[in-house]
């Protein structure tokens, strides 16, 4: 008997869902690099199903299970066997530089996904086996991406058909994968079994796969439908905190980013901070991704910047955020604009450009704050009285500061407009007295939250 | 993408067609590598304890204020004060 079926029987007898899922992985463990070849060679198209049936249902040394369920697993391993055949030939083709067909791999893997789905809907697969979906779903997405890349390169290297629209078909398989994952999502969500034996325990892993897929497809709004569907089941579901941390952290990260993209920065910050706090300390790349959104979030909600201590383990984040941070602190508007332009491609790719752009307000605030500080103190009315900063400042003084900074003069109307905006955004407190050409600042905190 | 170092250049004695498909296979690999890079990675384990997170208890040292008060003597402030004096002088005229 092949080791794949042996491992199935072992995991099934032990009720080990993750072990069972591992038998459906398309990646062999490093200790058994020949595992997939051996499995594929252990039988052939004509007899695979029959052999698996004998090994799973009719072998007395194996675990006992209902006939229906057993047949379901026979179908699963038959589909898996076929998919492995496609994977091995795709890999062999890639190695000999021949054209590999990840499309065939995807189709075979999709069939495996469907057979597994049927196992739950028709054959009574139990909820503890639900990690099988984690493995099968994960690779469904990966093979879909590979298949779409294949299709993209073959159309560019071959001919251009007149009516061919590459945009529409570019993500054909990945869109299909999203539909399959959605079916799994509904299968888990609608399970009516009592919670302790419910497929609902698989829900967040599947949601995370869907999020990854929707993000890749640039259909982020679809993620919100998922969140809505889950919300409708609140009270009927185990709370998020009772799921494995891997599921929780990934979920919070994506919910954080979704909120971030909708400019709900407070909600985004909450989720991203939780993801940050719970993240495994060795998952450097994931921590880096969380910070990519948490840093712009923090800049907007609390007007604070990351310290050297926070950035030091992440060179990529340093190059992303340090130049901007320096300019914000210095109140250097032209430097800020230049840094924004310099990083534009990367910022746009990460979808943080628009948020960072709003850091310009904080930069301007810091520049105006400098004018306030440079403007000095009132003459003391009596000796020993605490010094009071001059709260009336000519509009022209602010204009001068902006002009020095940007090396071109700005007319007074424009300066007034900027100042009025600062007041409106609550970054500066005071009013403009036009007849006198003065700004009258609040004596108790002209620049809220900055100590002056 | 073509500027990337070729890992195992295509054998020279192969037909041009074969070379081309080798190129595209390489591109696919490279693209795949780039894409994976962009997503939240799977964690190597499903669950872990508090000890495996880096909860410092207090996150405050990780964030700092967005303004800088240490540079009141730098050029900008000096220049600003100069300019402000000029503004004052102009007004008095």
From TrEMBL, chain A:
GO molecular function: double-stranded DNA binding; RNA binding
Residues in PCI domain copies: 249-446
One Pfam family of this chain: PCI
Cited SMART domains: PAM
Residues forming coiled coils: none
PROSITE patterns according to UniProt: PCI
Entry's family note: Belongs to the CSN12 family.
Protein name as catalogued: Protein CSN12 homolog
Automatic annotation (TrEMBL), chain B:
Subcellular location: Nucleus
Keyword Nucleus among UniProt keywords: yes
Keyword field: Nucleus, Proteasome
One GO term of the biological process aspect: double-strand break repair via homologous recombination
Region (Disordered): 1-74
UniProt feature, compositional bias: Acidic residues: 34-44, 65-74
Pfam families noted in UniProt: DSS1_SEM1 (PF05160)
Keyword Transport annotated: no
Domain of life: Eukaryota
Composition-biased stretches (Basic and acidic residues): 20-29
One Gene Ontology term, aspect cellular component: proteasome regulatory particle, lid subcomplex
CDD domains per record: DSS1_Sem1
Stated family: Belongs to the DSS1/SEM1 family.
Role of this protein: Component of the 26S proteasome, a multiprotein complex involved in the ATP-dependent degradation of ubiquitinated proteins.
Protein's name according to its UniProt entry: 26S proteasome complex subunit SEM1
Source organism of the structure: Amylocarpus encephaloides
Lineage of origin: Eukaryota, Fungi, Dikarya, Ascomycota, Pezizomycotina
């Amino acid at each position: 008997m092949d080791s794949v079926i042996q491992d199935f029987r072992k995991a099934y007898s032990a009720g080990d869902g993750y072990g069972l899922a591992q038998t459906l992985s398309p990646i062999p463990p490093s200790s058994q690099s020949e595992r997939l070849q051996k499995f594929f060679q252990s039988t052939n198209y004509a007899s695979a199903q029959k052999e698996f049936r004998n090994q799973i249902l009719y072998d007395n040394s194996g675990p006992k299970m209902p006939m229906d369920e057993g047949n379901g697993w026979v179908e699963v391993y038959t589909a898996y066997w076929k998919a492995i055949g496609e994977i091995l030939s795709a890999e062999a083709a890639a190695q000999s530089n021949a054209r590999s067909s990840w499309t065939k791999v995807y189709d075979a893997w999709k069939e495996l996904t469907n057979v597994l789905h049927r196992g739950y809907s028709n054959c009574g697969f139990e909820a503890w086996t639900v990690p099988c979906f984690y493995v099968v779903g994960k690779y469904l997405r990966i093979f879909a991406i590979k298949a779409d890349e294949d299709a993209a390169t073959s159309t560019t290297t071959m001919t251009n058909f007149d009516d061919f629209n590459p945009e529409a078909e570019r993500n054909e398989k990945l869109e299909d994968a999203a539909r399959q994952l959605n079916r799994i999502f509904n299968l888990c969500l609608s399970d009516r079994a009592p919670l302790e034996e419910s497929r609902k325990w698989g829900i967040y892993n599947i949601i995370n796969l869907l999020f990854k897929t929707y993000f890749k497809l640039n259909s982020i709004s679809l993620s919100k439908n998922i969140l809505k569907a889950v919300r409708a089941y609140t009270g009927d579901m185990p709370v998020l905190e009772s799921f494995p941390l891997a599921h929780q952290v990934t979920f919070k990260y994506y919910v954080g980013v979704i909120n971030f993209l909708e400019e709900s920065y407070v909600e985004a910050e909450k989720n991203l901070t939780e993801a940050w706090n719970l993240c495994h300390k060795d998952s450097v790349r994931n921590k880096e991704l969380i910070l990519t959104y948490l840093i712009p979030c923090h800049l907007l909600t609390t007007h604070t910047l990351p310290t050297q201590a926070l950035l030091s383990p992440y060179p990529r984040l340093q190059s992303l955020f340090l130049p901007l941070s320096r300019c914000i602190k210095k109140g250097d508007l032209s430097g800020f604009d230049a840094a924004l332009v310099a990083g534009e491609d990367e910022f746009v790719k990460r979808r943080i450009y628009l948020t960072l752009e709003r850091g310009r307000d904080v930069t301007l605030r810091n520049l105006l704050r400098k004018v306030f500080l440079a403007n000095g103190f009132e003459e003391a009315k009596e000796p020993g009285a605490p010094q009071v900063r001059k709260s009336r400042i000519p509009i022209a003084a602010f204009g001068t500061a902006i002009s020095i900074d940007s090396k071109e003069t700005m007319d007074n109307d424009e300066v007034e407009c900027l100042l009025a905006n600062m007041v409106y955004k609550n970054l500066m407190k005071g009013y403009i007295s036009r007849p006198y050409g003065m700004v009258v600042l609040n004596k108790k905190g002209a620049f809220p939250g900055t100590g002056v | 993408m073509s500027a990337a170092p070729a890992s195992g250049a295509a054998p020279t004695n192969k037909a041009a067609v074969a070379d081309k498909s080798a190129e595209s296979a390489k591109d696919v690999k490279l693209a795949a590598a780039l894409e994976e890079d962009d997503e939240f990675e799977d964690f190597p384990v499903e669950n872990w304890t508090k000890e495996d997170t880096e909860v410092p208890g207090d996150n405050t040292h990780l964030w700092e204020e967005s303004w800088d008060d240490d540079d009141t003597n730098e050029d900008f402030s000096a220049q600003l004060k100069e300019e402000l004096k000029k503004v004052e002088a102009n007004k008095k005229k």
